[in-house]
Amino acid sequence: MADETTDVERLVSELSGSGMLDAEAITDLNVNYLEPWKRGELDSDDRAYVEAFHARIMSASSGEAVNEGDVLTPEDWQDRLTEMQSRAERAEARVATLEAELAALKSSPA
């Protein structure tokens, strides 16, 4: 896990210093990827996104050609959005279940 931590921090740092991102994108990287990692909450999909985003931005900044297989189509983005919405709905349902369980535990006699 320590290697993964160093890698995520390094990737975000390199992206932030690349000169290719605006302040909003850098904030997004820090808030949505680096901070969750620091809390131990960065999942493998998000890590894969940071790695792919880093590869794409760094290859663009170096003038290297981008592999067309790495470019997401609008359909790919829609699929990703649909999956993220599904994950959010499942997470919300799980939170509701846990809140109900907690409430039941608090109201039950010890």
Q: What is the mean predicted local confidence, pLDDT?
A: 84
How many alpha or pi helices?
A: 4
Q: In this structure, how is the largest beta sheet organized?
A: none
Secondary-structure element sequence? Answer: HHHH
User: What portion of the residues fall into strands of 2 or more residues?
Assistant: under 5%
Measured between the Cα atoms of the first and last residue, the distance is 39 Å
- Give the uncertain stretches in residue-range form: none
Structural class: mainly alpha
Overall outline: elongated
Question: Could you estimate the helical fraction of the residues in percent?
Answer: over 70%
Counted up, domains total 2
Number of strands: 0
Specify Rg, calculated over alpha carbons.
19 Å
Explained architecture:
The chain starts with a helix and ends with a helix. It is elongated. It has four helices and no strands. It has two domains: 1-71, no CATH class; 72-110. Helices cover 76% and strands 0% of the residues. It has helices spanning 2-17, 23-38, 44-61, 74-107. It has 110 residues and is mainly alpha-helical.
Brief summary of the model shown:
76% of the residues lie in helices and 0% in strands.
Core attributes:
110 residues, mainly alpha, 4 helices
SSE blueprint and pairings:
Layout: H1 2-17, H2 23-38, H3 44-61, H4 74-107
Helix pairs in contact: 1-2, 1-3
